[in-house]
Write a structure and sequence with these properties.
- It is a single chain.
- With 152 residues, the protein is mainly beta.
- The chain has two helices and eight strands.
- The protein has helices spanning 2-16, 98-104, and strands at residues 29-32, 35-49, 56-71, 85-88, 93-95, 118-127, 133-138, 147-150.
- The longest helix has 15 residues, at 2-16.
- It is globular, with a radius of gyration of 16 Å.
């Protein structure tokens, strides 16, 4: 266990962790591992996602972030919406609502992205009413360093 902790610390210290570079501008491309991300916009204040009996209601309100994910690697990769988070101006983090994401996205969103291809979809975050997310942190995996991207 001690070796695992030392290895993780070295990985972060020598460049594996998130860096202090400026966040990627809205509409620009950011990369983490094999995935390249582009954020197309954000809309907050939606109380429900889906329709009819399948509709899911937010505890606060939903912020829906439009994204594109491109696979720049050599093997098919599955995008994991639960690895993503938004941050407000005070640094408070909010994780995605995967149940609401299932209602907001087509079935193809959950299939592996083949090399050289891209998929578009929506990430859905349940935040307190009045919250204004300023950045999104996009990750290839739950343990990857991530890339900061502006939402405005």
């Amino acid at each position: 266990m001690l070796l695992l902790g030392a290895g993780a610390g070295a990985w972060y210290f020598f460049g594996g962790g998130a860096d202090d570079s400026e966040p990627v501008a809205l509409g620009g491309a950011g990369r983490d591992g094999d995935f390249e991300f582009v954020v197309s916009g954000v809309k907050c204040g939606t109380p429900t996602v889906g329709s009819g009996a399948a509709a899911i209601r937010a505890q606060g309100v939903y912020c829906i972030v439009g994204i594109q994910v491109a696979n720049r690697g050599a093997a098919p990769r599955r995008f994991d919406g639960s690895a993503q988070k938004v941050l407000d101006s005070s640094g408070t983090e909010y994780t995605s609502d995967t149940g609401a994401e299932r209602q907001a996205n087509p079935v193809t969103w959950y299939e592996a992205v083949v090399p050289g291809e891209a998929v578009k979809g929506q990430l859905v975050f349940d935040v307190p009413a009045g919250t204004k997310p300023t950045e999104i942190e996009m990750h290839e995996t739950l343990l990857s360093a991530g890339v900061q991207m502006r939402l405005a």
